[in-house]
Specification:
Blueprint: H1 5-18, E1 30-31, E2 41-47, H2 52-67, E3 72-78, H3 84-94, E4 99-101, H4 106-109, E5 119-123, E6 129-134, H5 139-148
Parallel strand pairs: 1-4, 2-3, 3-4
Antiparallel strand pairs: 2-5, 5-6
């Protein structure tokens, strides 16, 4: 039996993504996969709306992203696989000001989905996992991992 809804789903996702344009400067950027960070070191943070430690670290991640534009890409992956408007609403509620990814980049990177939140991955520009950090991070701890590579 042919699934006619699958192509329609991609069309709907594409239309939703197109609505997140620069015409709406306050709209959180939602990206379908790895985002706009080709060639940059990435800090990929897994979060959920119900995760208290996630809420605690988001201002730290916002500051890291703001202070490292063009050097590193800070990206958010919703643990509950929320997407579209619901993803943007949850991100806005938590104050996430960095890139949102619609899909988990882990499988493409050969990285297993985290089982504990928050989990933060530091991925090299060559798409190699450098660090897997469990628990809330600060801008200082993340900067230390990014600067020293340890």
């Amino acid at each position: 039996m042919i699934n006619v809804f699958r192509p329609m789903g991609w069309l709907i996702i594409t239309l939703l993504l197109m609505s997140c344009s620069a015409d709406h400067p306050d709209a959180t950027k939602v990206l379908p996969s790895q985002g706009s960070s080709q060639g940059e070191t990435r800090v990929i943070n897994y979060w959920a709306i119900w995760c208290a430690p996630c809420r605690e670290e988001i201002p730290e991640l916002n500051a890291l992203a703001r202070e490292n534009v063009g050097k590193i890409a800070v990206q958010a992956v919703n643990f509950d696989n929320v997407s579209g408007d619901e993803l943007r609403q949850q991100a806005a509620k938590l104050g996430i000001q960095f890139e949102l990814l619609e899909t988990d980049p882990g499988p493409a990177l050969g990285i297993a989905r985290p089982t504990v939140l928050p989990t933060t991955l530091i991925v090299s520009a060559e798409n190699e996992l450098m660090h897997r950090l469990i628990g809330p991070q600060t801008q200082e701890t993340l900067s230390a991992y990014l600067e020293t590579g340890s």
